[in-house]
Amino acid sequence: QGSWDYQWCTEMTQPFTQGTGKDLYYCPNGTYYAKQNCSHWDFPSLAVGCEARWGVRPRKEWASTALASKRLPTASNIVFSNGLQDPWHPGGVLENISDTVVAVVIPNGAHHIDLMFSDPEDAAYPDIGHARAVEVVHMRKWVGQPARVLV
């Protein structure tokens, strides 16, 4: 449970599935899934669980509606970083959208590796250092820009 479970139930509903006996993920004792098909995503049952645990009902489309999916025509000054070793990366922005909304793909990276403190082991993975450098370039550029006043 915990805070991620609540966030999943209220904002970030995604089709998580359970794996098989040969996988890192396992069926939770057949609770929602038939043991022979653990990979089935049963949203109605998961929604019932959210209601029982948190008193909220997930909105399946909330993230794509509220966050505009990957349609960001008016966005600016965003660097989306995605490590290809992260199971979340298929939902990420993997290509530049504009000159100011850029994607940094880290082939050897996992979930937010670029935001962690650097480590001597990083030298074995130059793509991680490169991603951090690209992010710093963009942040310095943004800090140097005058603020836009929206009227």
Task: Provide a quick synopsis of the model.
The chain has 151 residues and is an alpha+beta fold.
In terms of topology, how is this protein built?
Blueprint (H helix, E strand, L loop, with lengths): L2 H8 L32 H12 L7 H5 L11 E6 L17 E6 L19 H18 L8
Parallel strand pairs: 1-2
Please state how the strands of the largest beta sheet are arranged side by side: 1-2
Q: Element order, helices and strands?
A: HHHEEH
Oligomer: single chain
Number of helices: 4
How far is the N terminus from the C terminus?
43 Å
Structure, described:
About 30% of the residues lie in helices and about 10% in strands. About 10% of the residues have low confidence. The longest helix is centred in the last third of the chain and has 18 residues. It contains four helices and two strands; from the N terminus they run H-H-H-E-E-H. It starts with a helix and ends in an 8-residue tail after the last helix. It has a two-stranded parallel sheet with strand order 1-2.
Fill in the keyword field for this structure:
single chain, alpha+beta, 4 helices, 151 residues, two-stranded parallel sheet
